[in-house]
Amino acid sequence: MPRNGSLCVYIGLTLALFAGVALVPPGLVLGRSVWVDGRFTIAAYREVLAEGRQWSLLRNTLAIAGGTAFFATVLGVVAGYAVACAGRRMRRTLVCALAVPFLIPPYIATVAWVDLLGRRGYAAKLLELSYGDGASPPNLYAVSGVIFVFSLVYYPLVAFATFLALRGFDRRFEEAGLCVAGKGRVFRRITLPLVGPTILTGTLFVFMLALVSFSTPSLLQVNVYPAEIYSRFSAFNDFSGATAHAIPLVFCGVAALTAWGLYMRQSRPWLTGAHRPRNAAGRRSGHGAAALVFTWFLVAISTALPLGALIRRAMPARSFFEALRTAKEEITTTVILASAAATLVTALAFSMAYLERLRLLDSATRTGAGGLRGAQRGSGGALHRIFALSAVPFLISGPVLGIGLILTWNRPGLPALVYDTLLVVVLACVGRYLFFAHRGAGACLTALDPALEEAASVGGVGWRRRVTGIILPLLWPSLVAVWGLTFVLSVGELEATVLVCPPGQTPLSVRILTLMHYGPSRLVSALSLITVLLILAGAIVTLVIYGYARRRVHVRG
Amino acid sequence: MGLLSMILVFAGCGCGKEDTPAVVVYTALDEMYSQPVLRAFEKQTGVKVKAVYDTEASKTTGLVQRLIAEQSRPRADVFWNNEVVQTIVLKNEGVTAPYVSPAAKDIPEQFKDPDGHWAGFAARARVIIYNTDLVADPPTSILDFTKPEWAGAAAIAKPLFGTTATHAAVLFATWGDERAKGFFVDLQKNDVAVLAGNATVRDMVAQGEYAIGLTDTDDANGAVEDGLPAKWIMPDQGEEGMGTLVIPNTVALIRAGPNPQGGKALIDYLLSPDVERMLARTRSIQIPLKPGIETPETVPNLTEVKAMPVDFAAAAAQMAASARFIQQEFLR
């Protein structure tokens, strides 16, 4: 990599920030769990692994993550297909409608579904009225209940991935294949390898989100690793045991990432990325019409029902004014926090992805083989492997990351600027969602035609001018999308935030949980709806900026 | 650099220098009850209070872990707990500092730390809540929860958190391991439901999902005030009864907190009769520990309640062992 002063500062800042949020907090937690009373011991790990409960925890955790990934993928693929089939105007409406379930934080969706399907929920009352005392809805307080809630929250991720895959899919490949082979073989050998990787990336994100989630399983009283970690901390004061329970989560996450990586490596390079989108719309068929009907039904179930339940519970309308009056500071704090977190995580993720790209460019220049495109198919080197550790702070679960941040930033001698202000919560959000932002930014950079930058590089243009003059102008619509995703996730973040939020600066998510003592009360429901509106507002702003940015890029192009 | 400046500006919100340093309190008592008290302190003294409230999910213990983790550079001055045992855990971890408040002199010795690390005020009691549509003759002892007539009809909160965890630890400390384990095994055999929290127990009983439940006075009173078909009684009050568990709020000074003087002033205020009076008049009907405080009729009088004699330090020592048994055997 060519070295100069500004590049060294850039690399140093990126690596320092990455280490500060992604490596040091988990490292300190791990270190403290094996360094007990001045000596090294893995007794806590041995004890945890020997417990009979491990199997039921592992079974529940994997069943929830796997089941959610499966059902969200099934629902998402149909919905994504429907979006691809829809006409231009309906597609816009459908995309907006599909975004809403994902914008409802899972713990808020859970509260709403408990209201609907809980033991004394609306469905139970309806069934009792219709069929008498013996009739009751399916039990929500079980693994299947968690999968149900999660699937309806996360399927839009797969739907969007499917839509993007179909939009970028050049149907000429299929048409060419059909000249010499049957539909089944074309689907297996051409269609699936082309759209599979993108859809599977959506599935992977869903798996990871469901794997480490604490709030929904906890509200529905299902024992999973994240809930166990929380119990270990709080009920047993057992720091080492809690950390030891995070290890299976990390293993499961790493296994899923490895499987995904292997699949991506096997996908056909001669097909991927070698096309321009054609026939993005117009997949009209009988299947398409059925998929559209099903998707609208799904949107109604996953959006209207939970939001309707929350609105019903929050009535009369004065509850909203009361909530707004009492939670003004929390709303402001949340907006500041989520905006700052989304900005920082997007900037860091882009910096990391660009460093990897610079490293590849450097390697391609030195070897002269295949240019950047060729180098991108390589392993990516040490930097790539280090940045892959961005998954660790997410996988160790929120409470462990929270403790890690306390150990890292609350030290005598360190300035209070970080730990005594909202910045520590910003870092918690950055740590939790860096993995997703890094993957997103990396994918966007990979999709950018490397010839532009290679030509500039050969012409002697420095890295800063290449970034500001070529990369950022072309990439900023995608970065706006990454910002929007992390904003949405940061507004709902709870599990690490609850341990580190500074006195007097409470985000909405923590306030809602604080008020949940009396169940889904009017105020809790009103605040939940305000949170959803806040997220929606953020998503709309993102969409508007994204649309504007795309138009600008097209005009330049 | 622009990005960094923006983050610093965002982070700097609310961290400007103030004339009087604020007192930072971590409180496990529900925000709806603790916030008015803290506001009254601010009004009376002019000292700003910054509070971190505990959430329903963590029920005291989240704040306790946070205080332990922050021990090397404490951010809080005062810990206001809604029970006792976790405060003793903090004392044992070296998180608290001794401070004998002049306002604590009227508090019964049972509710004060002999070393001055904490003092109790405004208590809640463990009570049996029952659905008046379903139960005419309610049980009078927690031991009745193991009787066949209540099989499948009784509920308790998860005994790993909050006052139910304290109750379990106290039973282990008072009865000894064998009897306490036997009691929980009998509860399990009698198909007693284990719910998320005391508020859920109250709701489920009030809705008729379960006939009886074990909860706290504040939760039970909420159901009665809301006009739901529920009433509550103090268990084990008879001649032979062991008494009910009375759990006070506790307050402790944090060792090496940033504003010890402000912390002591807040502790003095929290232990004053005004605060006990204020908390007694809320929906949570907290029971004053100091004598002579006038309360509404619905608030039990401590002199008329048969309270379980408890060694809270012994209960704290039993906490980990009882929690382990409950998690591994009772909640399998």
Protein architecture, described:
The complex is a heterodimer of chains A (557) and B (332). By secondary structure, chain A is mostly helical. Chain A has 2 domains: 1-41 and 318-557, MetI-like fold, CATH 1.10.3720; 53-311, MetI-like (MetI-like fold, Orthogonal Bundle), CATH 1.10.3720.10. Chain A has 26 helices and 2 strands. In chain A, strands 1-2 form a two-stranded antiparallel ribbon. In chain A, helix 1 (5-34) crosses helix 12 and helix 14 (318-326) packs across helix 26 (522-556). The two termini of chain A are 29 Å apart. Chain B is α/β, with parallel strands linked by helices. Chain B folds into 2 domains: 21-123 and 247-301, 3-Layer(aba) Sandwich (D-Maltodextrin-Binding Protein, domain 2), CATH 3.40.190; 124-245 and 316-330, Periplasmic binding protein-like II (D-Maltodextrin-Binding Protein, domain 2), CATH 3.40.190. In chain B, 38% of the residues lie in helices and 17% in strands. In chain B, strands 1, 2, 3, 4, 5, 6, 7, 8, 9 and 10 form a 10-stranded mixed beta sheet that branches. In chain B, strand 1, helix 2 and strand 2 form a beta-alpha-beta unit. In chain B, helix 3 runs parallel beside helix 4 (85-92) and helix 4 crosses helix 11. The longest helix of chain B has 19 residues, at 312-330. Mean pLDDT of chain B is 88; it is low at 13-17. Chains A and B meet through helix 10, helix 11, helix 15, helix 19 and helix 20 of A and helix 1, strand 1, strand 2, helix 3 and helix 7 of B.
